[in-house]
Amino acid sequence: MKTHGYLLTLLGALASGALPGCAATPPDEDETPPEALVSEAGTSWEPCGSTARRVKDIAPGAPGSEPRELVHGPGMLFFTADDGSTGRELWRSSGEAQKTVQVKDILPGGAGSEPRFLTLWDGVLYFSADDGEHGRELWRSNGTAKGTWRVADVLPGAASSNPEDLVVFKNRLYFSAMQADGLRTLWRSDGTGPGTHLFGDFTLTPIRDSPRLVPMGDELFFVAADADSLDSLLWKTDGKPGGFTFVLSLAEDLFFRALVPVGDHRLFFSFEEDVIGGLVVTDGTPGVSKNLRSFEVHPTELTVVHKRLFFRAATQGEDTSAPPDDPRSGTELWVSDGTPGGTRQVVDLRPGLLGSGLSDLEAMGGRVYFSADDGQTGRELWTSDGTAVGTFLVKDLEPGPGGSSPRELKAIEATLFFSAETSGHGREVWLSDGTSKGTRRLHDIAPGGASAAPRSFVRSGWDVFFVADDGTTGPELWALRFRPHGQCKSNQ
């Protein structure tokens, strides 16, 4: 394995001025909103019972409405769905069938406006949509038809600017948008048409495993292409006009894979050349960074747990930046504290080049949870505190080498929601508090060995919403009551 430390070219230079619950009452009757309880220290939450409910059969029949992009909003859940007649449009729900409705038919007819990149800012939902007249542009909604409108026609006419990478930074919405020449540039909006404008005349480049725009502390980081060499350049802005600073550049043929902040002063990023890659950290100071190490398989699934970064990677033990006893292994769990010496493999769950193939990393309670195959129990749910002794199998859900293949891991108020496939039950919803005893399956949504294939777990109000297929209605919106400890009804 060749070393790539020398390939990271640090060209930092200042470029300022450059252009570019189960409660006893329904949610709407409870005096204390769920968000207030979440913020209270010591408040613990629990799922109410073991039976989820279908919220509404939005598109009757087997195809289902296939809800996507579930986002928690003020007093409601936003999502997109296709009801079979108006196409995919924006919907909202408060957990009851009669309060699960289409917000607005933006593109009348069967095609649908296909809302994407749903992002909440100050109680308002922003997203991209195509109304059939102005192309795909930036929209906003307060959850009502009257309060849903197009913010700006960034690329005038029927052409689409295709807004992506929506992110809130210093009380403004930043996003990337396409120009007429097909290049993607940096835009900013205050939520109004006149207040939406080109912010930086940069050619933004894609990042495979994270958004193009990443806030850290008081600065917004992004990756752009050099106009001459097409090298990948890391920039930052403080949000002021002309307040752009060039941080560093990757050498030719290297590409940013992910940008992940840990706290307000450490930005980790992975880079790749084909499959091979490495991990680097910077505090944003121009020209200052640390090449932590190189890998045979570039780091992916970068996951923050308190002040450390967990990720999956593989090495063949030939990296000159690594210790002499560096393990020769396949894809396994790694951790970094931001120093070369503190960037290490946590444990080799499955010795050999095949590796445990861990995936679906999720942080909860100072630990990371993930799916992995140790070669004996099959792919099951594991957890780690960053040490070998603190890494263990949570529970063998499907005894034998086959494994239950946990997926869709999502931590919600100290409860881990995920899907797993077991004999006689198929792929269903599972919950865990991180212990074997506290890991259990909900009642089957799809009876018998059929699979409900649950996914997209999101808490909104007094429920955890998700998408599942009971085998009759197709993929639809489901929910499980989720309340502060002691407030679940005894009959649920």
UniProtKB/TrEMBL annotation:
<feature type="region of interest" description="Disordered">
    <location>
        <begin position="316"/>
        <end position="343"/>
    </location>
</feature>
<keyword id="KW-0732">Signal</keyword>
<dbReference type="InterPro" id="IPR011047">
    <property type="entry name" value="Quinoprotein_ADH-like_sf"/>
</dbReference>
<feature type="region of interest" description="Disordered">
    <location>
        <begin position="23"/>
        <end position="45"/>
    </location>
</feature>
<dbReference type="InterPro" id="IPR015943">
    <property type="entry name" value="WD40/YVTN_repeat-like_dom_sf"/>
</dbReference>
<dbReference type="InterPro" id="IPR030916">
    <property type="entry name" value="ELWxxDGT_rpt"/>
</dbReference>
<protein>
    <recommendedName>
        <fullName>Lipoprotein</fullName>
    </recommendedName>
</protein>
<feature type="signal peptide">
    <location>
        <begin position="1"/>
        <end position="23"/>
    </location>
</feature>
